[in-house]
Write a structure and sequence with these properties.
mainly beta; six-stranded antiparallel barrel
């Protein structure tokens, strides 16, 4: 399911345990600002075709590329916006 997380385009790609998994690809230069949105522990928005929610995440995997990175995140504290 397509999902925009903290302004980054991606998709909900599955569930691991009880956590939704979001995955997106972005330019390497965009990664620091994206990470900073989660660093303070505040909830950030995620928008899907089924609605808008807010989430937190502490569980990340980043696959580096030359010009882009792929990021997968386990979403926590999923709640309504």
């Amino acid at each position: 399911m397509p999902a925009t997380l903290a302004g980054a385009s991606g998709a909900i790609v599955g569930v691991a345990g009880s956590r939704l998994q979001w995955e997106g690809e972005m330019p390497v230069a965009d990664l620091p600002a994206f990470v900073a949105r989660f660093a303070a522990g505040a909830a950030v928005p995620i928008v899907t075709s089924r609605g808008r929610l807010h989430v937190r995440s502490r569980d990340w995997v980043v696959w580096p590329g030359e010009n882009t990175v792929k990021v997968r995140m386990a979403l926590e504290d999923v709640g309504t916006w």
